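Hi! If you just cloned this repository, the fastest way to understand the data is to look at a raw example. We've pasted two of them here, unedited. The first protein comes first, obviously.
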Amino acid sequence: MKKFNFIWVLVSFFMVALTGCVEKTTGPFWHIHRVSNEVEWIQTLEEIRSSGDNKNHTINIVSDFQVQGSGIRSFGNVNNLVVKITAEQPKNIFLTSQGSFLNIGQSQKVDFEKINIFGIEDNTTSLISVSGDFNMISGSIQGNTNIYNSAGWYEIGLLLSAGGVIVGSNGTFTMQGGSIHGNTGGYGGGIDVVDGSLIMHGGTIYGNTARRDGGGVSMSGRNNSFTMYSGSIYENTAVHGGGVFVSGEFQMKGGTISSNIGGGIYSPPLGAQMMGSVAVITMSGGTVYGTYESGVTLDLANTNYALRSYEILTSGRIPIIKYGDGINVLPHTDGHEGYTEHTIFGRP
C-alpha cells in the first residue's frame, strides 16, 4: 500500500510538471509555464490556445531570447482568459522578423511586467496589438519601426501604423509603469488609440516619432478615450501633436507632457477629425510644457463648426510652457480669432 502511494505521488508530480499546471491553495486554478527560448514560447501559446475558456495562466520568462513576429491572435479565440507575463528579474525578448510580439483578443487580459520587448527597423505592424485588456506594470516596449504605408498621408492604412502599441476596437491599455520609447509609426509613434481606451497611471512615453501625427500618443478612431492620471510624455516628435494628438476624448488629471516637437497637445479642425469623431479636452491637473510650439493647440481652420467641438477646462494647475503661448487657438480662415468663442478657464 505504501509502495502504491509512493508511485501515485510520483505520477502526480510528473503530470504536473508535464502539463505546467500548479494549483494555488486559495483562489483560481493557475497554469504555470516556464519559457526560456522561442520554441518554449511557441509551445506555450499553443497550449493556451487549446486550453479552453475561463483559464488563468502565468508565463515566467527565465532567460533572454529571440522570437519571430506573428500575424495571428496570440491566444486564439479563448474567452475570459487571464495571462500574466512576468520574470523574477528583468528579461529581454528580441523580435527577429515582421509581425507583432503580442496580439490580444477580446475577452482576454494580459498583465505584463519586467519584460523588455525590442522591435525591428522594418516592421509592418506594432509590437503589441490590443483588442482586450493590456495592463503594463513595468518593463519596456521599444525600438520598433512600423513602415506600413510609409508613403501614405491620410489613407486608412496609415491609421494602422502605430510603432509601439495599437489599441483597437473595445481594447483597453492601462499603463501603470514601464516605458514605451524609440518607436516610429505613421499615426502614433508610441501608441495609437483606435476606438479603444488608454489609461495612464504612471510610466514614461518618450523618444517616439510619428511620420504624421501623435508622436507619443495618437487618438485616431471614432470612439476613443485617453485619461492621464500620472506619468510623463516627453521628447516625442510628430508633424502635429508631438506629445498627444487628440481626435476623441482626452482627460488630463495629472502627469507631465513636455519637450515634444510638434507641440504638447494638438487637436485638428473638425474636418480633419478621424472618422468623424469629436475632440474634447479636459485638463484638471498636470503640466504641459511646450518647446517652440504651443503647449495646447486647437486648430479651427477650414470649418465654422469646430467651435462646438472643443472644450478646454484648466482648473488646478494651469498649463505651463517654456516658449510660446500656453493655449493657442488658430484662427478661422475668415480671420476671426477663436478666443472669444471658446471657454478657456485658467489660461495664464
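Ok, and the second one:
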Amino acid sequence: MAFSNLVEIGIIRKPKGLKGTMFVEINFDIKRLDVVLIKNDFTLVPYHVKEFNMQQARFFLQLYGIDNMNEAYSLQGAPIFADKSLIKEDTKILDVIIGYELIDVQYGSLGLLIEIEQHPYQNLLVLNYQSKNLFVPYHSDLIISIDHEKKIINTQLPDGYIEAVL
C-alpha cells in the first residue's frame, strides 16, 4: 500500500465494551476494510481488522492486537487511514461534508465548506471567510464533531489561528 494511495477515512471516537471494540466515525461508503493504518504520534501503524460493522447507524471496529478497553482507549481520537481504492466508486472522497457549516467554539460560525484540498498526509477544509479563503486542517485535534443531520462541523481551532492564517 503506497502512502500516496492513503486517505483519512475517519476517527476512533471511543471504546465500546471490554473486548477492544471501538465506536468509529467513518466519512465514506467503504467496500470492505481488511487493514487500516492508525496515526500514533507521527507514525502510521498498520492493524488488521477483525470486525467492521454498522449497528443502528454507528460504525464499530475491532482490530487484531487490541483486545481490551484500555488498549482501545489508547487509540481514542486517532485518525484512521486506508487505501482509497476501498472507497466505493460512487463516493467522492470527503464530498459528503461539502456545504456543511463550520462552527468554532471560539470564533463562532466560520461559514460553509466550499472545497476540500486533498494532500497525502493532511486534507484541508476550504471556507470563504470574510471574502478570503480560510484553510482549516481536517484533523481529529481540531474537529470536535460532525452532525450529518444538521450539516454542521464543530471545531476548536487554536487561539489566534484565524488571525495567523489570514
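That's it. A detail worth noticing about the second one: Residues 3-86 form a domain with the Elongation Factor Tu (Ef-tu); domain 3 fold (CATH 2.40.30.60).
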